[in-house]
Amino acid sequence: MKTISKCLMMAALMVTTSTLLVGCNQTTDKKSTEKEPELAVNNVKDTEAASPDEDSKKTEKYLVERVSNIYKDVCDTYNAAQNDLNFTEKLAEKNFDGNYCTDSWNDILKEVIEFDKVNSVGEIGFFEFDYWIMGQDFQDMSFHDVKVLDMHDNEATVGLILVNMDSDIKLKLNMKYERGDWYIDDIENQTMDFDMKKDMTEYLKDSKKVE
User: Fold this and answer.
1) What percent of the chain has pLDDT over 70?
2) SS3 38
3) What is the pTM of this model?
């Protein structure tokens, strides 16, 4: 059985902070160079709508596939780490947050990490566990029952069951369509009753009140 300590988890988070912004900046630069669609004046029929590719991505079938691919990557990465001494470095290289989460999520995540680097030296800080596996320890990671609970325009809610160490964890993901694809904007653990993005936001507010 492979265990991941709080120190290992925090080390991975700290290394990930620098890669977070690189991924975001690269996507932003790419987006800024894209050519804007030309609109015909006074001709509604000629107005550029969503591209065929975007239309195909805004379907329940694609969204289930997208979330399944995300958590397959997560589970495969952790399962492969059971005998890997360089796991921390490889986890940081994966940059799950930068690759699979919204800009808004990454902004709050970076702020929490930077706050804890200064104000929680020698203490646990906000992150008491790894939210990608919903624990400090992991073994035989898997997932199932990915389904779209709600979908409207550029926002959706997806449910799934994450399995860690033979325990089922019910997750609800708030998804947003940005940068040409669906990204995780929040992770709610319905089994343990907490909301990652909401809790990070409240943590920052409460911490600043006592500064």
Assistant:
1) 73
2) coil
3) 0.75
* Cα radius of gyration (the chain): 19
Query: 3-state SS string over 77-99?
Result: HHHHHHHCCCHHHHHHHHCHHHH
Q: Is the pLDDT of residue 48 over 90?
A: no
Q: Is the pLDDT of residue 49 over 80?
A: no
Whether 154 contacts 177, CB under 8 Å: yes
CA angle 109, 31, 178 (to 5 degrees): 50
Give which of 169, 166, 167, 170 is closest to 157, Cα–Cα.
Answer: 170
Which tokens belong to 156?
Answer: 């959706």
Beta strands 137-138 and 181-189 are unpaired
Tokens 């900046």 correspond to what residue?
A: 25
Instruction: Give the C-alpha separation, 134 to 194, whole Å.
Output: 11
Burial status of residue 175 (CB atoms within 10 A of its CB: 0-12, 13-18, 19 or more): buried
Place of tokens 């894209």: 34
At residue 90 the predicted structure's pLDDT band, cuts being 50, 70 and 90, is confident
- Alpha carbon dihedral 99, 100, 104, 109, in 10-degree steps, equals -80
